[in-house]
Amino acid sequence: MPTISLAIQKGGSGKTTTTINLAAALKQLGHSVLLIDLDPQANLSQALGLLEEVEPNIYNEFQKAASGAKSGLKAIITERSGLPLVPAALELAGAELELVSIYGREQLLSRMLKPLKNEYDFIFIDCPPAIGMLTVNALVASDYVMMPLQAEFLPLKGVKSFMRHFQQIKNTLNKKLNILGFVLTKYDQRKTMNRNVLDKLMEDYGDKVFKTRIRTNIALAQAQEQGVDIFSFSKSANGALDYMELAQEFLKRVETR
Ligand SMILES: Nc1ncnc2c1ncn2[C@@H]1O[C@H](COP(=O)(O)OP(=O)(O)OP(=O)(O)O)[C@@H](O)[C@H]1O
Ligand SMILES: [Mg+2]
After folding, report:
1. pLDDT in tens, 205-251
2. Tens digit of pLDDT for each residue in 22-51?
3. Which of 159, 191, 232, 239 could bridge to 217 as Cys pair (CB 3.0-4.6 Å)?
4. Mean pLDDT rounded to a whole number for the chain
5. Does any ligand 1 atom lie closer than 6 A to the CB of residue 13?
6. Measured distance CA(80)–CA(78) in Å, rounded
7. Rounded to whole angstroms, how far apart are CA atoms 150 and 186?
8. How many CB atoms lie under 10 A from the CB of residue 166?
9. Which ligand is nearest to the CA of 213?
10. How far apart are CA 174 and CA 167, in angstroms?
């Protein structure tokens, strides 16, 4: 079943928020989603209520895989949202360097996920805000990449550079990788800048832009602080409505690609 990386090198663009809440919406629609926290900041793990570091985590598994041992990637079922998660660990920051000298370093995550692919409808990988060895591993392990973007001028520059990396990885390491789409987050229809960025994105990337836009909604940040997804926090919040709409569009896009 498809694996999707949520990636873009710009920080704070809504990758983690989209990972949790899109997964929670898909769960409501009857789909199973495994979450992988690949960011040393561990925001995804924390946002699902895991405040302390636990084992097994994704770093241990990278170490095992790098030493040639068989990895037995296991998820923890997070208490408050019921979403299965492979948590991050701070040492993951060191993995960028540690992996440099490992043979087959770009394929480690892909190999780790293989045995789990048939257990879930989707696997989501929440990437760190950089295009290093971890994000490369995520993209090599994925069928699709989804790029959350805040509708500001600056991210558009980052988009071009991200697309070059995407193309390089597709050409050399993972031919089956495809773009699922850009998702605008923290969107405010009243802001001229937001509308301009949307127009420019449509002009350059057309149907690669999700029609659903995630509005700015404080409840999304509050839910994250309390360690729950938006549906457990407030079913009627705009954030819940937007992520449910995104889930429906997501399912259509995955089917038709
Ligand atoms: N639609 C939204 N409305 C209001 N706040 C939001 C929205 N989406 C995300 N946020 C908040 O913005 C901040 C950044 O979002 P998030 O952590 O999802 O970004 P990120 O791309 O994962 O960041 P990083 O690159 O650091 O991993 C968080 O505090 C989050 O709660
Ligand atoms: Mg994040």
Report:
1. 999 999 999 999 999 999 999 999 999 999 999 999 999 999 999 99
2. 999 999 999 999 999 999 999 999 999 998
3. 239
4. 94
5. yes
6. 6
7. 6
8. 20
9. 1
10. 10
d(CA 68, CA 119): 24
Ligand 2 centroid distance, CA of 41 (Å)? 8
Q: Which residues of 188-215 are buried (b: 16+ CB within 10 A; e: fewer)?
A: eeeeeebeebbeebeeeeeebbbebbbb
Task: Note whether 150 and 29 are within 8 A (CB).
Answer: no
Contact (Cβ atoms closer than 8 angstroms) between residue 118 and residue 108: no
Q: In whole angstroms, give the CA distance from residue 85 to residue 36.
A: 6
Instruction: Give the start-to-end residue ranges of the domains of the chain.
Output: 3-256
Tell me which fold the domain 3-256 belongs to.
Rossmann fold (3.40.50)
Q: Is the CB of 21 under 6 A from ligand 1?
A: no
* Nearest ligand 1 atom to alpha carbon 187: 1
If you take atom 6 of ligand 1, which residue's CA is the nearest one?
221
- Helices 218-225 + 15-28 axis angle, to 10: 90
The pTM is what? Answer: 0.97
User: Whose structure tokens read 């495994």?
Assistant: 34
Q: Cα(240) to centroid of ligand 1, in Å?
A: 15
Determine the distance separating the centroid of ligand 2 and the alpha carbon of 127, expressed in angstroms: 7
The residue nearest atom 25 of ligand 1, judged by CA position, is 11
Q: How are beta strands 84-86 and 76-77 bridged, if at all?
A: antiparallel
